[in-house]
Amino acid sequence: MAGTFTLEVVTPEELLFKDEVQFLVVPETYGELGVLRNHAPMIAALDVGVLRYTDVDGRIKRMAISGGFMEVMNNEARVLAETAEPGDDIDVLRAKAAKERAEARLAAKAEDTNLARAEAALQRAIARIQAAEMK
Ligand code: ATP
Q: What CATH number is attached to the domain comprising 26?
């Protein structure tokens, strides 16, 4: 084992997760960013997508996050996300319904549709479905 570091995931509502992990991958605007123990200090803007980490037992776990920031310092990665849900806690039917609503709004192209908002809702729903269904 290469060694562990602390992952903390915080939303405006709660400290959702704090534990030692072996490896972390977060979604960034232009791809993914991996973090191992002894990573250099860094701040990164995160995209809507799936965060995944390898726990101390070597299991890969996933969370949907809807954008935010990550700070890495002194073997601690702190993710500050608008919303975050562990894959096991995601209501897939709710996410699929949200995806269909957003797709219908985007397809209808109604004048009063806020396209950016519908696109953001679509991305959140896709991330939730992926985090819940990728095992
Ligand atoms: P919806 O239209 O289904 O409410 P949304 O993308 O508008 O989806 P958000 O505003 O991003 O929802 O999130 C509101 C709250 O609901 C957050 O606390 C978020 O973690 C939670 N949440 C949203 N969708 C799901 C889901 N599918 N399963 C579990 N929790 C969810």
A: 2.60.15.10
Nearest to 75 by CA among 20, 6, 3: 6
Cβ(127) to ligand 1 under 6 A?
Answer: no
Cα separations (Å) of 67 from 46, 81, 109, 118?
Answer: 5, 6, 25, 15
CA distance to 18, 34, 68, 111, per residue, from 107 (Å): 40, 35, 28, 12
The residue among 20, 14, 83 whose CA lies nearest residue 51 is 83
Average pLDDT for the chain: 95
Q: What is the pLDDT of residue 1?
A: 54
C-beta separation of 61 from 53 below 8 A = yes
Cα end-to-end span (Å), the chain:
22
DSSP 41: P
Total domain count for the chain? Answer: 2
Give the pTM. 0.94
Q: Is 90 in the pocket of ligand 1 (CB under 6 A)?
A: yes
Task: Summarize pLDDT for 12-27 with one digit per residue, the tens.
Answer: 999 999 999 999 999 9
